[in-house]
Structure formats: C-alpha cells, structure tokens
Amino acid sequence: MLVLSRQKDQTIMIGDNIEITVVDIRGDKVRLGITAPSQIPVHRKEVYEAIQDENREAANITLEDITDVTKRNKGQRDSGQGSGS
Asked: Which of 14, 30, 58, 69 shows the smallest number of beta carbons within 10 Å?
C-alpha cells in the first residue's frame, strides 16, 4: 500500500484521469473529492462490497427461481393484485 500525506486542498492523481482532493479535515474525518471519468464507478468500500454480494447472489439464481417468480406474478395479475394501479 502506498501511503501519501496531503493537506486540505491538495490533490493526488491516479493515472491521467482520476483526481482525489482533500476537501476538508475535521477531527478524525477526512472529506475527499473525487473526479473520475463517468465510466469508472466510485463507491465507498462498504457499498462496493454490498454490490458485489448482490451480484454474486444474482449469479446464483436458477431458471427454477425465475419460473417461480414469473408464476407468482402472473397469479397476482390474474387475481387483480400487484397491478400497480
């Protein structure tokens, strides 16, 4: 791990197009501003991990799971439930 020291309003560059700026420092909290191309996702680590967990869970869905949900939704529509109106 590379450890760099920066003060408020100082910036770190990652490659040519990712810029991380120290916006504010208050006590034990540091606020960072991140400028990156829109095609590069930027998340807090806990959000990133939650997304990865959801993706893994979605990848484990079977055709049977999809069929069950489809049948359940069709039954709700046929009985007038879940129409969203």
From this structure: 58
In a domain, 70, yes or no: yes
Q: Tell whether 3 is covered by a domain.
A: no
**Average pLDDT of the residues in 49-64:** 89
Chain-centre distance of CA 61, in angstroms? Answer: 20
Range of the structural domain that residue 64 is part of: 43-79
Largest pairwise CA distance in the chain: 63
Q: How many domains does one find in the chain?
A: 2
CA distances to 44, 45, 48, 57, 61 from 41, in Å: 10, 12, 9, 20, 25
Closest CA to 42 of 18, 9, 13: 18
Q: Residue written as tokens 């049948």? A: 71
Mean pLDDT of all residues in 33-44: 97
